[in-house]
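can u pls check wat happens w/ iron/sulfur cluster
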Amino acid sequence: MVSRCEISPPCNYCSLSSSISAVQGERDRLSARGVALAARDAVDRGVDSIVLVGGTSLDGSDRQVRRTVEAVRDVTDAPLALDVGPSISTDTVEWLKGQDARTIYCSIETINAEAFHRAKPGDSLDARVAFNDLLQRHGMTLGNVVMNGLGSVGDLVNSVLFLRRYRSLRYLYVSTFHPVPGTPWATRRPASVRTSLATLAIARLVFPQVHVGLAEVEVEDPGSGARIAPQLRAGGGNTFAAILVYRHRRVDRMDEIVREAAGAGFVAG
Ligand code: SF4
């Protein structure tokens, strides 16, 4: 995480809401220097764009974000995207353009307000929608992760369809709820990966020009990054998260992605 999450209480499915400190620590914040070193390492491994993921602060994380982006820019000019929820000011949005960081994720995990509030009681759906509207007005490209498991399957599809209002949507991922030990939702059943893949296939039809795929969230859904071939078959996988860097863990799937893409008749590059 490149910025602290100030959401209170934390989302019920997130490892930050775990009562087990080792689980909660999986999403510890990295220093700006740590992020820069990881970015340099990823680029050296062949990664060609970087997403900086942080927590949400409805009061703003501008300083943390700018410091981290500057540190990354000192070591690489690879395209950057940012995923910190509605946590930055309009000034910082404009500043990011000058840093070649033109894609911002502020995910609307579900458009069902009740389901959103049940899963994310400390977060604001209205703030997320308003921030995406602002980003589009300011000429940014958008990324979004919808989450399977927050409401009904109909809610999931509606959440995908809602995003049609954003003509600048460029990246759309489907994450699959998986229970995390120690969290309020630790005993809930995991959501169906098959449903996530079906939603991905619908997203491909609705958004033929958009990068679509399954979200890789190794901390909450171990093994999610290994679903390479099924998502290619469902019409997704234009972009994969080949290297994930957490404070205490690094996941490198570069070779696996190249191998599985080749096996499915695609060229990874
Ligand atoms: S906003 Fe994101 S990082 Fe913060 S508690 Fe919710 S899921 Fe976790």
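The longest strand covers residues 141-148.
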